[in-house]
C-alpha cells in the first residue's frame, strides 16, 4: 500500500512513516520541511518518499498525489497544541481547517477515499468522568480543540458530498522519543536523566491519559488496515489516567535520587494555562473494531522513554 502521511516530519507523523516503511508499505511524507528524524529514516529505508510543501496551498498536495498516487492518507499535519492556538487562532484554523479541506478536495479529485485524521481528547473540553467513551460531548475550551471538532464534523459532510471516509483517531498526550514540545513527561525524564532539578509548583492532581508512541502507532496502523469501519471516531490511547503525581513517583523509582517534585492542583500548559479536567480514553471501541490493545502502562512507557534518553546521551 502507498500511504501519504501529512505532517510526516513531525513527532507522530515520522513515527508512522517509519512504521509503514518497516512493514513494506510505501510511506510518502509531506511536511513544511524535513526533520532530522525523517531525514535519517529516509536515508535508511527506500520505502520512504519525502516531499515538502504547505498544505494551505492545495497545489502542493496535488503535486504529491500526481507524483505518488497514494492509496490512503494519514493526516497528522496541524498547528498542534493549546498554547500554539492561544497565540494565533486564525493560523490554527487556516492550517488545520483550510489545510484539511485542501487535502480532502485533492483526495476527491484523485479518487482516494480513506483519510485517518489524528484527532484529540482536547475536543471534549472538561471530561465529565474519569473514563470516557467516544460519545462524550465535545465542548472544547481552546481554538486547537475547536479546530479538531470542526474537522471531525466537516469530515462527515465530505463523506456525504465527496465520498471521503474520514476516520477520526482521537488520542491523548502521546509521549516517547523525540517528543518536540516541553511538557510532562519529557521535562521530568530529561531532568532525572541529566541530574538537573525540576520542581513544578502545581499539577500533581491532574489525571491524564498518557499514551506511549509505539501503542499509538500500532493503533493507527490497525485502523488503516481495517477494510470496513463501523464508526468514524475511535480512541487510540492508553485507556488509563494516572495522576501527574503518580508519574513523578514512577520516575523517582526509575531514577533513585532524582531531584524532581510536583505540587498539588491542576496541571498548566506551559506553566500558565489550566488544562481541563481530563481522564482515561476508553479504548473498547478500537479493541472491538480492529484489535487495538495498548501494551504500555505509564511505568513501562516511562522506562522505555528513559532508556532511549540514556542511549542518546551515551551516543552524543
Ligand atoms: N502528540 C500528541 O500528544 C497529540 C495528541 C492528540 C492529537 N495530536 C495530533 O496529532 C497530529 C500530529 O501531532 P504531533 O504531536 O506529531 O505534532 P508535530 O508538531 O510534531 O507535527 C505536526 C507536523 O505538521 C507540520 N505542519 C504544520 N503546518 C503545516 C502546513 N501548513 N503544511 C504542512 N505541514 C504542516 C509540522 O511541520 C509538523 O511536522 C496533529 O494533528 C495533532 O493535533 C497529537
Write structural notes for this entry.
With 316 residues, the chain is an alpha/beta fold. The chain folds into 2 domains: 2-174 and 210-235, Rossmann fold (3-Layer(aba) Sandwich), CATH 3.40.50.720; 177-209 and 239-315, UDP-galactose 4-epimerase, domain 1 (Alpha-Beta Complex), CATH 3.90.25. Helix content is 44%, strand content 18%. The protein is built from 11 helices and 15 strands. It has helices spanning 11-22, 36-44, 58-68, 82-87, 89-110, 143-162, 186-194, 213-225, 244-254, 284-290, 298-315; strands at 2-6, 26-31, 48-52, 72-75, 114-120, 131-132, 165-171, 173-175, 198-200, 210-212, 233-235, 260-262, 268-269, 273-274, 280-281. It has a 7-stranded parallel beta sheet with strand order 3-2-1-4-5-7-11, sandwiched between helices. A two-stranded parallel sheet has the order 6-15. Strands 8-10 form a two-stranded parallel ribbon. Helix 1 packs across helix 8 (213-225) and helix 5 (89-110) runs parallel beside helix 6 (143-162). The two termini are 36 Å apart. Bound molecules: nicotinamide-adenine-dinucleotide. Nicotinamide-adenine-dinucleotide binds at residues 7, 9-13, 31-32, 54-56, 76-80, 95, 99, 118, 120, 171, 173-174, 180. Residues 7, 9-13, 31-32, 54-56, 76-80, 95, 99, 118, 120, 171, 173-174, 180 line the site of nicotinamide-adenine-dinucleotide.
Amino acid at each position: 500500500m502507498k500511504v501519504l502521511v501529512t505532517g510526516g516530519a513531525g513527532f507522530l507523523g515520522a513515527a508512522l512513516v517509519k512504521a509503514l516503511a518497516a512493514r513494506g508499505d510505501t510511506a510518502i511524507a509531506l511536511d513544511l520541511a524535513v526533520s532530522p528524524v525523517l531525514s535519517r529514516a529516509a536515508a535508511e529505508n527506500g520505502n520512504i518518499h519525502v516531499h515538502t510543501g504547505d498544505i494551505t496551498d492545495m497545489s502542493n498536495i496535488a503535486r504529491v498525489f500526481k507524483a505518488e498516487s497514494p492509496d490512503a492518507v494519514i493526516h497528522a499535519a496541524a498547528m498542534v497544541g493549546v498554547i500554539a492556538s492561544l497565540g494565533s487562532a486564525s493560523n490554527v484554523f487556516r492550517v488545520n481547517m483550510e489545510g484539511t479541506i485542501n487535502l480532502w478536495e485533492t483526495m476527491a479529485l484523485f479518487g482516494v477515499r480513506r483519510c485517518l485524521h489524528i484527532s484529540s481528547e482536547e475536543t471534549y473540553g472538561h471530561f465529565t468522568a474519569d473514563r470516557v467513551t467516544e460519545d462524550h460531548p465535545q465542548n472544547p475550551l481552546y481554538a486547537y480543540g475547536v479546530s479538531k471538532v470542526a474537522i471531525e464534523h466537516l469530515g462527515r459532510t465530505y463523506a456525504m458530498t465527496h465520498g471521503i471516509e474520514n476516520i477520526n483517531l482521537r488520542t491523548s498526550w502521546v509521549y516517547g522519543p523525540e517528543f518536540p514540545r516541553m511538557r510532562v513527561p519529557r521535562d521530568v525524564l530529561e531532568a532525572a536523566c541529566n541530574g538537573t532539578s525540576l520542581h513544578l509548583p502545581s499539577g500533581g492532581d491532574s489525571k491524564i491519559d498518557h499514551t506511549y508512541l509505539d501503542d499509538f502507532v500500532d493503533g493507527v496502523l490497525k485502523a488503516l488496515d481495517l477494510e470496513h469501519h463501523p464508526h468514524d471516531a475511535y480512541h487510540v490511547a492508553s485507556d488509563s489516567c494516572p495522576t501527574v503525581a503518580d508519574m513523578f513517583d514512577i520516575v523517582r523509582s526509575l531514577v533513585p535520587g532524582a531531584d524532581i517534585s510536583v505540587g498539588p492542583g491542576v496541571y498548566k500548559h506551559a506553566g500558565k494555562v489550566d488544562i481541563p479536567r481530563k481522564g482515561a480514553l476508553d479504548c473498547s471501541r478500537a479493541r472491538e473494531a480492529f484489535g487495538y490493545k495498548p501494551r504500555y502502562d505509564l511505568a513501562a512507557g516511562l522506562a522505555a522513554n528513559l532508556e532511549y534518553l540514556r542511549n542518546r546521551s551515551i551516543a552524543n
